Amino acid sequence: MTLFGGYETEGFFDEAVGAESGTFRDGYEPTVDFFKGLTNKRMKASLRSLERTFLQHGVTFTVYSDGQGTERIFPFDPFPRIIPSDEWSTIEEGLKQRIKALNMFLADVYSDRAILKDDVVPASLVKSSKHNRSEFAGMKLPHDTYIHICGTDLIRDDKGTYCVLEDNGRCPSGVSYMLENRLAMKRTFPDLYRKLNVEKIGNYPKALLKTLKSVAYHEKENPVCVVLTPGQYNSAYFEHTFLAQQMGIEIVEGRDLTVENDRVYMHTTDGLVQVDVIYRRIDDEFLDPHFFNRDSMLGVPDLMKAYRSGNVMLVNAVGTGVADDKATYSYVPAMIKYYLGEEAILPNIETFLGSREDELKYMIENIDKLVIKAVDEAGGYGMLIGPASTKEEQEEFKRKLKANPRGFIGQPVIALSRHPTFCDGKLEGRHVDLRPYVLTGKETVVVPGGLTRVALKKGSLVVNSSQGGGSKDTWVLRKNK
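Request: output the structure for the sequence above.
Response:
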């Protein structure tokens, strides 16, 4: 195969191809040689094998933007992303630092509010956050942990520096695709996988269950944990069922749970069983129709009474969205400095806040050069990429900015790094990001790797599956002993 015939980096930082023509970055040469050695026939057979694996395992997601709720196989590229051990060590250290500061921030915001009193983070920013749950101030959570499961999105800029794009601290998704990608690659290319001595990720469900059990309020030998799903029509339902199955715990819907005497019980064939920890994949506002959205059919009536009484733990905790807010994101380096007395290991992207008058003015005047994001949207929705937008779209977003300045941030268009990706039998560069997963309870665990998402459309910077993106396996190389 002529893999890199006509391959162009086009001025972007390339994850695999070196700055000098014909050179490859650390760890990539064995992979390049392996794929070069495959015949077209073998490569096509491998691709069919990968597709069969995903079909058999039902690895799908739902696209709501097409108006039909179409269910599709998650697109996958077989050329793995490779991260040398020294690079990963820096990422891991930076992620642990970040999640520690974010949890300290949430514990502070819902108790003493010292960081707000000292004006390190504006009190108005927290007060105006859509996800602020001040009703739960004063609660003492196990290990002072609010965000137990975090998916932090990382990108690399034009110099190859790893930067944080955003923190997903409410109901981060995608970990099942990470695990299925690995399983598919190990089955399809076992020789290459073994040769590179890749860090394992298959113990994630075991580590997740250990995290869930560690945050139960009442010490028990075996706390009862469940996964609470909105149901089969949710876009991530495959992931909900996958994780429950892998952990060996029940997956439930709101109707499967009931609250009696401020305790949560699960309906079973043997009667009611008390539940200690709920890994909820439902946003705050749908959790309890007696407390939040009265029209919600997804939650459990009086669940918040049980939660407030300390009889059930919710993972992630209620109110974590304050730290997940894209406007709050800009203050995370300041949080790290305030709580830990350290500089951020993983830098933020330059961010302009609509809530600041001078920055709002800059965003409006430079809307054609910036990426404008709604602070509480996800999945690539509520976003304008200035250089790729029409005048009409820009004018529409200007109106939105003026009507709700607090609701938007602006960032420069980042030249996301690119990675070799199979396109019609040859490799072409496509933009990528990385979502590593961090588990926090009694201890903190960073899974070695994460979900690499790929913008499969040529030239696109949007990697979300809902917007035409796919994924690839992420191989962290072990340290040589």
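The chain has a mean pLDDT of 91.
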